[in-house]
Amino acid sequence: MEKEQALVVRLQNGSDSDAAFRELVNTYKERLYWHIRKMVLNHDDADDVLQNTFVKVYRNIDSFQGNSALYTWMYRIATNEALTFLKRKAKRNHITSEELKEKLIEGLTTDPYFEGEAIQIQLQKAIAQLPEKQQLVFNMKYFGDHTYEELSEILDTSVGGLKSSYHIAVKKVTAFIKEHETFFKN
Amino acid sequence: MKPKKHTHGFSVPKDYFESFDERLQERLTESALPTAHGFEVPDGYFDSVEDRIKVPSKSPKVRRLSHFAVWSTVASAAAAIALVFWLNSSEDATSLDTVPLASIESYLEEELIDYDISEIATELTEAEISTTFSETSLPADQLQQYLLIHVEEVDFSLE
Q1: What is the pLDDT, as a whole number, of residue A186?
Q2: What share of chain B is helix, strand, coil (3-state, %, to 5)?
Q3: Cβ of A143 and B16 within 8 Å?
Q4: CA–CA gap between residue B16 and residue A47 (Å, rounded)
Q5: Which listed residue, of A138, A161, A183, B137, carries a Cα 20 to 30 Å from A109's Cα?
Q6: So what's the ipTM on this one?
Q7: Is residue A22 pLDDT above 50, yes or no?
Q8: Domain count, chain B
Q9: CA distances from A66 to A6, A32, A76, B60 (A)
């Protein structure tokens, strides 16, 4: 935390801000990438959103007041960027966000940067059935390494609410997988 | 940091994270450029733009060959034949009727190889062409055959 505060000071202090920004990018690029990737599914889109996220961070670092941890602030930016990106993409293609998600999941079968098997594609389909907030909670908790406290800060939701959301999401995902179980047996 | 509990199957291209900083730097540089282009249009320009656009007719314009163009080609061919014989004939002129068509063609190919039929046509007036054409009294079927073979090079395509 102290290290992060020192980094913020350097970022907001003109003389060393470029080097500090490089350090920031190096520290968070992978974590933020995977957070974004699980939302947008496609590598190129994830790369695009990740770059946009850092551009936003760079431009707005002076307005960061330290009311939350720097990384939760960046996660929030990344989440908003990814959601906005998906909405814009759906609009551009004249389809709904749900239809876009279906299309993206179908694309995984031929995606050179998806090494998952049928069960993982089915899992993505199950996640896509969840409401937006539950998708976020499930992805960050199931695949990620966040504590509920961290998630609470990032998603601006109470720990109790998050636990409940995650519990419901797990139930829905399990039900979906069971429902489509014959697919795996064949 | 704890290890990830579950795998999602996603991967990244080789060296993606190593080269990310460089690409981000490009994006940052680009994002610092002005977003507005600075161009402006006169007031109300877009309200009146439709009125100033002339909509072309739907069907493509077909260039109709003029009567003169067809006949000038026909007359040019005939005139060329007649001209060659006129230029080369002495007091003892041979009637064109008695000369086989193949001989005329062969002669034209050998002697007029550098002449363009349209060049010859431009040298003659329409009246001269008409006169020459009527004087040659070339049989219609032979003339037609000649034209079918030789006039195909004329471009009658649509404009």
Answers
A1: 47
A2: 60, 0, 40
A3: no
A4: 9
A5: A138
A6: 0.73
A7: yes
A8: 1
A9: 11, 19, 14, 68
* Token duo for residue B93: 């002129």
Q: How many CB pairs under 8 A join A and B?
A: 72
Structural domains of chain A sorted by starting position, each given as residue range(s) with its CATH number in brackets: 1-95 (1.10.1740.10), 116-186 (1.10.10.10)
Q: Has residue B59 been placed in a domain?
A: no
Per the CB < 8 A criterion, the answer to whether A10 and A17 are in contact is yes
Q: Across the interface, do B10 and A55 touch by the CB < 8 Å criterion?
A: no
Predicted confidence (pLDDT) per residue in B16-50, tens digit: 999 999 999 988 888 877 777 777 878 887 787 77
Q: Which two tokens stand for residue B121?
A: 């046509």
B134 touches chain A (CB under 8 A): no
CB-hemisphere CA count at 13 Å for A129? 15
B16 contacts A29 by C-beta, under 8 angstroms = no
Tokens of A21: 């920004």
Q: Hey, what are A89's tokens? A: 């993409």
Q: Quick check: is B125 in a domain?
A: yes
**CA dihedral of A168, A169, A171, A176, whole degrees rounded to 10:** 140
Task: Among A34, A51, A123, select the one facing B23 at the smallest CB separation.
Answer: A51
Vertex A153 angle, CA A150 and A159, to 5°: 75
- The pLDDT tens digits of the residues spanning A97-119 come to 999 999 999 999 899 999 888 88
More confident residue, A123 or B65: A123
SS3 B25: helix
The answer to whether B93 faces chain A, any CB pair under 8 Å, is no
Residue B28 located in a structural domain? no
Burial of A149 (0-12, 13-18, 19+ CB in 10 A): exposed
Min Cα separation A29/chain B (Å): 8
- Cα–Cα distance for residue pair B124/B89, rounded to 1 Å: 19
CB-CB neighbors (< 8 A) of A22 in chain B: 21
Under DSSP, is residue A136 helix (H, G, I), strand (E, B) or coil? helix
**Contact yes or no for A109/A98 (Cβ under 8 A):** no
Residue B90: give the domain boundaries. 67-153
